[in-house]
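Complex record, two chains
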Amino acid sequence: MHHVRSIPPPPAVEMSAATRSFGDFTALRDATLRVEAGTILGIIGPSGAGKTTCVRLMTGGLAATSGTVRVLGEDPQRFRRRTRERLAYMPQQFTMYPDLTARENVSFMASLYGLLWLNRRSRVRKVLEVVDLWDVRDRRAGQLSGGMQRRVELASALVHEPVILFLDEPTAGIDPLLRARLWEELHRRRDAGATLIVTTQYVNEAEECDQVALIAEGRLVALAPPEELRRRAIGGHAIEVETEAPFDPSGLTALPEVLEVRSTGARTFLAMVEDAGSAMPVVVEAVAAHGGAIESAREYRQSFDDVFAALLEQAESSAGADANAA
Amino acid sequence: MTNLQSLSRILAFLGKEFTETLRRPGAVLSLVLGPLLIMVLFGLSFYGYPPPFRTVIVVPPNSGLPTTADSYSKITPDIDVVDVVTDAEAARERLRSRSIDLVIIAPPDLAAQLLAGKQSVLAAEVNISDPIAAANAGYLANIFSGEVNQRIIEEAVRQGLQIAVAKTGEKPTDVPPNVIAAPTRTELQNVAAVKPAVVSFFGPAMLAFVLQHLAVSLVALSVIRERGSGSFELFRVSPVSASEVVLGKVLAFAIICAIVGAITTVGLVAGLGVPLLGDPLLLAIAMGLVIAASLGIGVIIAVISDSERQAVQLSLLVLLASVFFSGFALNLDLFLPVAQPFTYLLPATHGIALAHDLMLFGWTNAPWHFFALFAMAVGLIAVGSLMLSRQIARS
């Protein structure tokens, strides 16, 4: 009897110690990450951090100076045509044709990906409706607003239903309401099995991603799901407590569940714990035991602005410590 | 399916270029009407012959030569004798101030020299920077000298006959003095099917010339704009190949140039009366090959240019080279034999030769131009495609 051993499919994207330099300047240093199929990886970081370089290494627009990059198991520098048919790339700058209408631009890109006429017509309509541009489909791209132009590009990237989408700041310049709709569409793609690599400067969009890669000054500072990053930023979970009267929370540090207590006001404090769910009743009871009356107690969710600021601070101090040690 | 998809990609580029071109009506209008308008203006304004040289003749006192301008007016229409003077230095001063073009100084002792059996010198002085005009001045001075010689001989014969009649009472010959002085004269007969005319001659040349420039600049600017906008990076990620990009663009611009060429030809023939004696199909093939080879040059220019400005400059350099080396303005026989083969590196050189032959003579005695253009078109497009492919891969 023969056992058929199934070989697991390669990860959608895999980078191993990938570095890209331009002369003396290193845009990305030793980036290692793995993106499983059917997930959204958000690449987040300040402007000039190396996000676009990271994406261009994945699309094959740039070759790694050292290290390896694999997409669907292939070297992006040597993608086969079949593989390229399964990819989509939306660059940061406007690359559409201003003299063509929104529909013509999307249709042109659909043709490049081999969509034949009948199929193309219906797909173009569908994606233009998704990005809310169907009503202006016959307007020239050059006459559209900046946000609309980004949506034309996004529609062009979505039109052939790619397996992996590389989207470089797809929501830049798009109003919050439409941004939410676009994320809904990206989630739908993810749920249908597509892998999405999305760079963004909107830090709070990290919430929309399954994995978040935080890049700063060419270094991959952190790579984890958003919640895990929150945990790392504050060293665990936080419980925000408000009491009816001024309360000194320092006594709570004796509890084994509580890692640290930070007073944020006369009647408010943060209790840092390993796990907010299990620690919450213990903290509430302990406050009462120390003579306090609880007004409210809830898990404290830091904004991602604060999370990333904290992670970047940690990374800087860690780098400083390494430098001192060296 | 793959072939269909490939065709779909090529047609996508074709459609895009067409649509973009048509969306700029001003550009379309200038593409179609521009060459015709230039030809009309050229035909209306170009005289074709240089103006006569404004000439002063210096006749020394007592030389026996005529001293009025009218006496010299019929020597050649290319010399306009504005004055006959005796002071050579005053005439030279007028030459230096460029108020006249030519000074002819007659020898002071013409009769004595002749009787002494010596040749006199008829000095011609010019003040010209244009090498063609300078060569023409030398040619005219020779004609003038020949005419003067002829008149001297004629006068000598007339006087000789009078002396003979006086001495012998008989006329030694009935041949008139002017026939003895010039026993032959030239009568030119042009057997060409078309009477030479400025528009007829330059019209066919302009057709090939304009099509080359149009094809080179259109495709070069299109490719470089595409590269500048970042589209190459999209192409690199997408399944489109460089050869599909080149083929799509070449086809689109070939059709656009062919339409402009057809309209220009109709305008030349029907509007300006330029003859088309040969097979229109052969002319279409010739111009089609000029367009194809020029598109290849355009793609290469786009690849080697680092900006739109440089592409424009290189396109203009090709245009400038064509003005001098394609036979458009200067006859190729005027070049050194060693340089002539290089003039055939320009598609316009072959195109102009074929357009002249097919339109004005009805056939060509140099069918090798077709093969040369075909080889250039295939080679240049292949090289351009290869270079573009590398550039897209690097983008």
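Note: The radius of gyration of chain B is 31 Å.
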